[in-house]
Design a protein that fits this description.
single chain; 472 residues; mainly beta; five-stranded antiparallel sheet; 3 helices; 27 strands; globular
């Protein structure tokens, strides 16, 4: 298997003392350079927007633990932050994929600011495909590629013919116009959540375009199964344009705010997804949790009420009925990537603990779901507060902290601790405008915008009832 060694980073300015490791603590920071390429070399040709098709970006959209020191990192629909074609919301025929990483945690030198060094090593890149035909857009009437003269053309990747398969892509026009958005034959996929089956042989991925929940073979990336989701999550007036879709539908997921998070219970029997925002028919702040029995396909819906974030990015199982999830705003590094943008500081990146025991199903309810809300404990972890305490400025905290996963245990000061990993989606942008200088400052320049991974340690007393997933 091909390996690519990636840089790790410890920030020298961190102000953590060696005796401050009580409770939930930041123990390591790693990063992956935003200008690197992944291991799917056959996708390296430039996309419609001029970006290499194997840019290693957005890898913190979803993060899954796979046992030992192995993690799976999931990019979303591709590098659509590069402006080239507003008729497609700047999406491209980027082939969806997940990456297999080794996240090594080793004790740091005695003089280091943090007790561990995190070294990410990319092991493999797996492309996602379907054995059966998928629906791709033909590009007719949708303008040109980034050169302004070459017609857009089909959204089907050229690699389909070479590999004799049908790859999923991020291009927003790859759908059947006459069927609901949950049609499993659509080629468009915007992956946001990933989890590993208990036998380690497959992965489950949720998305925002459908929403869809698919099962893929972990080794080949071929789709194994599609889970049928309720009609009330789907939209029926589809468009390549986000704003047109939002305006044209009164029921279903809000465009770009579909099933952002996905969990699997430690017993491996149930998937639990969460919508990033309210459905069109629900009150703002009333989100839906969707449970799926993997064996039977039976689905349930439950209500989650936002506290102070603008949406939820991920959900993670603590045990078979308790889950943690992250509420966040859209502020922080890369929120405003252009030289003409005014920077924003991260404020809300918080982890909450919920319990589905006793929750009432809301499948037949719409509107204000407040009275049906699942049990929710006070804040479990304030990530912005923890990073600020470690000397990290809020303007340098990534805006899209989206991937969360439990990881391998470590020994800290002679005590065994569990680990909790948090990763960002850097929108495939290797550099963004310097957040500390005003838009009109002629010396503003750019700063690096890596894929970042923050590692926290916690004890059983910090999260009672924690049961690690049994991945074989």
């Amino acid at each position: 298997m091909i390996e690519k060694k990636l840089l790790c980073c410890l920030i020298p300015a961190l102000l953590v003392s060696g005796s401050a490791y009580a409770g939930v603590d930041l123990i390591a920071i790693g990063e992956v350079n935003g200008s690197y390429e992944d291991l799917a070399n056959k996708t390296a040709s430039k996309l419609e927007n001029g970006v290499p098709g194997n840019r290693l970006g957005g890898m913190g959209s979803g993060l899954a633990y796979a046992g030992g020191t192995t993690f799976l990192a999931l990019p979303d629909r591709g590098p659509n932050a590069t402006v080239y074609n507003p008729q497609l919301d700047d999406t491209s025929s980027y082939i969806n994929r997940f990456h297999t990483f080794n996240f090594s945690l080793a004790p740091s030198d005695s003089g280091s600011a943090l007790p561990f060094v995190l070294t990410p090593t990319l092991r493999d890149t797996t492309l996602l495909s379907s054995a059966t035909a998928l629906v791709y857009g033909d590009g007719a009437g949708l303008g040109y590629k980034i050169d302004g003269t070459t017609p857009l053309g089909s959204g089907a990747p050229a690699l389909n013919a070479v590999d004799k398969t049908h790859y999923f892509t991020g291009r927003s026009d790859n759908f059947d116009k006459v069927l609901p958005s949950t049609n499993a034959n659509n080629a468009r996929l915007d992956p946001e959540g990933i989890r590993v089956s208990n036998d380690g042989k497959s992965v489950f991925i949720s998305d925002e375009y459908g929403p869809y929940v698919y099962q893929f073979d972990r080794a080949t990336g071929a789709r194994i199964k599609s889970f049928t989701l309720p009609d009330n999550l789907a939209i029926t007036a589809l468009s390549p344009l986000k704003d047109t879709e939002i305006a044209g539908n009164k029921v279903g997921r809000v465009t770009n705010k579909g099933m952002e998070g996905l969990a699997i219970t430690p017993d491996g029997k149930m998937l639990v997804g969460i919508m990033q925002a309210n459905l069109a028919q629900d009150k703002k702040g009333s989100l839906r949790i969707v449970t799926i029995d993997i064996a039977s396909g039976k689905v349930g819906q439950y209500a989650y009420i936002l506290t102070d974030g603008s949406g939820v990015s991920e959900i993670l199982a603590v045990n078979n009925h308790q889950f943690i999830l992250d509420e966040r705003d859209g502020s922080g590094l890369a929120d405003t990537p252009l030289m003409t943008d005014t920077a924003s500081a991260a404020k809300v990146k918080k982890i909450y603990l919920i319990d589905l025991n006793g929750a009432r199903d809301v499948s037949s309810v719409s509107g204000d779901l407040t009275s049906y809300a699942v049990s929710k404990n006070p804040i479990a972890l304030d990530i912005v507060g923890k990073l600020n305490a470690a000397g990290i400025n809020s303007y340098l905290i990534p805006s899209k902290l989206e991937g969360i996963a439990f990881g391998q245990d470590v020994t800290l000061n002679g005590v065994t601790k569990h680990t909790f990993f948090v990763a960002n989606d850097n929108d495939f942008l290797a550099k963004v405008a310097d957040p500390f200088k005003a838009p009109k400052d002629p010396t503003r320049g750019y700063v690096t915008n890596p894929n970042q991974i923050y590692v926290f340690a916690f004890g059983d007393e910090d999260l009672p009832g924690f049961v690690p997933q049994d991945i074989r």
